Amino acid sequence: MRMVLVGCSGFVGRSLVTLLLNRGHQLTLVSRSAQPLPALQHPQLTRLQANPADPSSWSQPALLEALAAAEAVVNLAGEPIAEKRWTPAHLQLLQDSRIGTTRALVQAMAALPAGQGPGVLINGSAIGYYGTSASQSFTEASPAGADVLGRLCQAWEAEAQAAAGRCRVVILRIGIVLGGDGGALGKMLPVFRLGFGGPIGDGQQWMSWISRHDLCQLIAQALEDPAYAGTYNAVAPEPCSMAQFAAALGRCLGRPSLLPVPGPLLQLLLGDGAKVVLEGQRVLPERLQQQGFAFRDGQLSAALAAATS
Q: Rounded to whole angstroms, what are the CA distances from 251 to 8, 35, 185, 193, 238?
């Protein structure tokens, strides 16, 4: 298939691009950076520099031509949620990078002549859609939360759903992605390997996670299989508490995992952004299990072993 990939040059995108190329797809990678994935050279990969949140970017001849010829689009664009304080400027960036990018992309697709353009859009979202809870379990049928992330994800998904009249739309509410060279786990590994690791906060908050391998396989499968449509929780079937996660990581590395990271310290560093790691939600992949998706890393021990090997 010919595909346009947006926001796919980071932690998840690096693995996704390699997987899709290995499956024989032809990719156009749209990124703000002039040289995303500099180490990867492939005759089936084209790079275009643009600001995908700017509607005028989609009128560039090369990008417009790629979108018109594409059979599929993957949009994972979005600034990291929990790495900076939620100042008004950063909150605006979080919105623009998700809502603005998706809106501009869908509008560009809608402006294409009939018979041109992608037949499927895979769009990212996040389990922050549900808000946080220490006791509830959430499936795809659960309502959106009323907090900042719940409202952000709801608006983000609405922009993607606007393409439903033109193509098949798949929205993935992605949990904490586990990989050894990035994301939350990548930041925790050096501390744990030194023997100073432990749970963040009180350790009782839920962590709903998915291995990067399984997430990339899910995206590839959703692109190729027309049975995938609508919204899916992109999480493994065994959510855990932060304390359980820290203990499992310590066992995997053969290191102690007893020193907690105080919540007030994170709040001092990240402000409202600390909410993402100090609070959580128990999210279940009900629709993926009904559809028979095969998780390679369905158990936390297997996911951690694969990520740290």
A: 32, 38, 15, 11, 18
Tell me how far apart the terminal alpha carbons of the chain are, to the nearest angstrom. Answer: 32
The model's pLDDT over 254-269, given as tens digits with 9 standing for 90+, comes to 998 888 878 787 777 6
d(CA 51, CA 90): 17
Q: Where are the beta strands (DSSP E) in the chain?
A: 2-6, 26-31, 45-49, 72-75, 120-126, 137-138, 168-174, 176-178, 206-207, 209-211, 230-234, 240-241, 282-283
Using CA atoms, how far residue 282 sits from 34, 134, 204, in Å, is 39, 8, 11
What angle do helix axes 148-161 and 101-110 make, rounded to 10 degrees?
10
CB 296 within 8 A of CB 143: no
* pLDDT tier for residue 31 given thresholds of 50, 70 and 90: confident
For domain 2-175+210-235, the CATH architecture is: 3-Layer(aba) Sandwich (3.40)
Which residues are CB-contacts of 180 (< 8 A; sequence separation ≥ 6)? Answer: 186, 189, 307, 308, 309
CA 250 to chain centroid? 25
8 A C-beta contact, residue 106 and residue 155: no
The candidate with the shortest Cα–Cα distance to 182, out of 277, 307, 19, 74, is 307
For 100-159, write each residue's pLDDT tens digit: 999 999 999 999 998 899 999 999 999 999 999 999 999 999 999 999 999 999 999 999
Q: Specify whether the CB–CB gap between 200 and 278 falls below 8 A.
A: yes
- Which one-letter DSSP state was computed for residue 203? S
Q: Which two tokens mark 107? A: 């509008």
Q: If DSSP codes are grouped into helix, strand and coil, which group holds residue 253?
A: helix
